[in-house]
Each structure stands twice: as structure tokens, then as C-alpha cells.
Amino acid sequence: RPPGPSGPGWPPGPSGPGGGGALPNAPSHPSAPGSDLTPLTVPYNRPLPDGLRDKVLITICGSVKPNADKITVDLCAGTDIAFHFNPRFNEYGQKVIVRNTRIKNQWGKEERPLQNFPFGPGKPFEIKILCTNSEYKVAVNNSHLLEYKHRIPNLKSINALKIYNDVDLTKVDIEMLH
Hints:
Shape: globular
Oligomer: single chain
Distance between the termini: 24 Å
Helix content: under 10%
Strand content: over 45%
Number of strands: 11
Low-confidence stretches: 1-7, 15-35
Largest sheet: 6 strands, antiparallel
Number of helices: 0
Structural class: mainly beta
């Protein structure tokens, strides 16, 4: 799809020089800048001590493992999972991205239908999750993929980002859009 007009848009432009800026005094990567692509540890667990709020953008860069079965990204509120984003590479021969919420150990109704499965074994990816007051908007490789309405509307209670299964991570950024 053609690039949109300049100004606020979805998905936001690529991160890096000339792209969306990080929060002031929030290092995007704890090590040296530049071409350092030291893999991050998987399973990845990042506390979100202030919770989420409107216009928080989470950017996850990495690559899918060659023999991947699934990737899991969870936004957690204590033991609950506010947003479960779960691309599956071979569920009975199908590629599917399951989205759900778990409250008090009970999973809600899965959301599955999607036109596009943008992940490939061995391929790099960039996932952007934009938190708004009403939903999460997810883009992969700069293309809008889906929206997921909040089922845990108390965004401040969402206190951890967890990423696990068949993925190698190179960067996880959390920034506030203006």
C-alpha cells in the first residue's frame, strides 16, 4: 500500500534515524549504539512498572527460528494476560494468529480470522503494538495487521511484556507517541 501523508499515521514509520523517536532518557538498547545486534534472551520478560496508557508503542524486532512452531507475545496484568498475540505456523496445516485474553486462569473467546500471515520461518520481522484507550493496533513489517479491543481496560494494571517460543529477538523498544 502506498505511504500515507506525513504526520501522525499508522503504522508509525521505521525506528532509527529519521524515524519515530524514543522517549527522552529512555535508552532503546542497553548496549552500544550502531550496528550492535546482540540477541536478547528468550524467554524475554520486561517489567512495565508504570503500566500502559494511550499512545504507548511497543516495537519488537527479531527473526523467526527456522523450524518455528509458534511465537508468543503476552502483555500481562499480574497473573492475567491482557493481550495474547500468538502466531502459529502449523496448526493442523494452517497458519493462524490467535489473539485472546486470560482472566483468573480462564481464557476468553479466541480471535483468529485474518487475511494475512506476515511471518516466515527464518525471516526477520518488526512487530509494532500501539496501545490506545480502546484497543491494541498491531502492525508487522510496517503493514497494519489487526486491532484487538481491550478486555482488561485498566491499562495501568498491565505490568509486564513477555515474549517467548520460537523467536530470536534483537530489539524491544517501548516509547510514548505524541
